[in-house]
Amino acid sequence: MDDRYRPREIEPRWQKMWHDTKMYFVKEDAMKPKFYTLVMFPYPSGDLHMGHTRNYTIGDLIARFRTMQGYNVLNPMGWDSFGLPAESAALKEGIHPSVRTPDNIARMKEQLYKTGMIYDWDREVASYQPDYYKWTQWMFLLMYERGLAYRKRASVNWCPSDQTVLANEQVVNGQCERCGAEVIKKDLTQWFFRITEYADRLLNDLDLLEGWPERVRTMQRNWIGRSTGAEMEFPVEGHDEKIKVYTTRPDTVFGATFLVLAPEHPLVAVITSAEQKQEVESYITLARKRTDIERLSTEKEKTGVFTGAYATNPMNGERFPIWVADYVLGTYGTGAIQAVPGSDERDHAFAIKYGLPIMTVVQPEGEFVVAGDDPAVAPVLKQGSDVPVYTGPGVMVNSGPLDGMPTTESKDATIALLEAEGKGKRATSYRLRDWLISRQRYWGAPIPIVYCDDCGEVPVPLEQLPVVLPTDVEFTPDGQSPLLRVESFVNAPCPRCGKSARRETDTMDTFVDSSWYFLRFCDPHNTEAPFDPAKANYWTPVDQYTGGVEHAILHLLYSRFFMKVLADAGWVQAQEPFLRLFTQGMITLGGAKMSKSKGNVVPVDDMIERYGADTARLFVLFIGPPDEDAEWSDRGVEGMHRFLNRVWRLFEGKVTVGSGSSHGQALGDYSKSDRDLLRKVHLTISKVTFDIERFHFNTAVSAIMELANTMQAYRDAHGPQTSAYSEAATNLLLLLAPMAPHIAEEIWQASGGSDSIHRQPWPAVNEELAAAEVVTVVIQVNGKVRDKVELPADVGQDEAINAAMQSERVKQYLDGKEPKKVHYVAGRLVNIVI
Fold it and tell me: Residue 569 and which of 42, 500, 622, 813 are 20 to 30 A apart at CA?
């Protein structure tokens, strides 16, 4: 070995060896257990910084660790390379996305290579390439064929900055999740995937995902937002139409004193009186400028307009007014609510503002008074704010046949009444809405649909895929797809009749590309199908998926939807794509997420040039619990570099690795100092294995550092040529190999190890050596700790009690008294009661 640790010389050599020998390229192997590990499909931005590296290092560590454990490990990499960033750069810099994207990919591959990340590069895919998006278009046609892809005119989220529509999941607090611009509403004809058809399965199967963080499962449950209640019909006075209302509290129908329609509700224009028309239209125009977040805000003052129309309560025949208000959304339920101001905070605030009646229909338990028995205290119909709102449980009042009934029973009783009288039915509603996939942008997979004047909407036949994205486009920020101006693309023969027709010029949301990529990795060179089901069934579900929690209700939900559709179509067996999920925290600098736009990044190249890849890898593993955000520290990086130098020095002299093992050896074969060292070795093997399994990488690194310190103390006292030290050195390298692969490989080879260290089996624990020789027994008197003694690990009860009674400190508290009772917990505790 060289006398100095020189990572810039070591690391390129081993990176080349791993690459040239295709060490981590794999095929299906029925003789081995499989393990599919995957980090989330990255967008090729061109440059990595240390904030990115945490995710990739975790994935690389898992792949190397599971390989050493004997698994057939699939660890692929690809590029989520369609989307707005490349197109926006084309607008700003004049660089075509088809030029910029492969350049960025090449740059990122170079950086991943230099950090020692190992992937099966034979499986590399990129979503912008025709041999990939051909099958994305195939996925669209599968959805279309199964009735899950459809086109309709709808009010959509529009980002004025990116000049495109956004799915509901891409709007965060009223802003575009990508660029932060305020989102507005716009009416457009768009393509949707009917994800709501799978709402129940997506919700129920979350219970199967025990390897997912609970917060991600909770986010998906809340986003799907299933609720149960009833759907009722309210006749409109002077019209044939009836207003359908969905409510989770049908039992409060007797307390409804007005109806509220969303501004988007189709009946608003029909029922509004001539006198109210202008005011209602003005209000709707104003409401359309507000985001859903603003409209639902509890802090915003409620506003609305009377339509001039009246409805009839189906349960008691009461006549009440119909209003339009923006706190009701057209995308939830039926877009209409029964307003019960005595039992709902928003309805109460609205009723007070506009002087609408308020009635109490639920009273707290113990305060029940039937209306009419005592007019002085009984709840009656009143105007204004003198009737308070009550939203808790209790008993029903002013509710006809429900009076006196507990609210625990009143909901089902009301639904039974509605169904018996044909005025309503039990219903389920969801917050989840169908997935809007149309984008008025160029850089995406074309939607394979042609519009023919004679044949109508015609899907492109499979044999004509891919519909190739042209490169001769003009980028203009006018909110229309650049494809509209490419006549050679737009004009196409109808696949059915052969006459002149027009192609769809919207492209697909890039989340469509990433909703199935993990399946393409199973069979990336297949030209006849998106993948061979046999290969997909061997590898999937993904055993370990790693990525950011920001994709909880976007990519992760969409991928689950795709997997279920493909399972229903017979293409895969698994119902869920990802068995285990880990969401890593961000690395921050100056308290903010690393970002080129903020100028607070630590470039990967700078770190490797100065300290080496292994230092960078170990630091991002050690910086803190990997599921939490952590602040970058230059001092911490330097400390990790010093540690690797200490490891290097542990192998100076004639240290031999890979030969000899304590397994099968008796304890008596070793001196006490040897036993102490080997005990530390095997305790460390146990801890590091356990910590990697549960993703506690920071404590795993800490345990390895402690072992190195113990080895240094032993070396100073006994030298490095003993068999115990050789075993310690061997296991130190094996434990370090997945984390700092270059230095481990270099020392392994220089110290006589055979083959690559990364082809060695993961070390096993010698339980006998790992067991403690002595235990610390706590001594209590009347439950209070008075002393501690070290005793042999196999100490018996009588010996432990005798040792406790002989303690000088315990004798002081006994003061010559005989114990009334002595409790003994083996190897841990003696409690003397006096």
Answer: 42
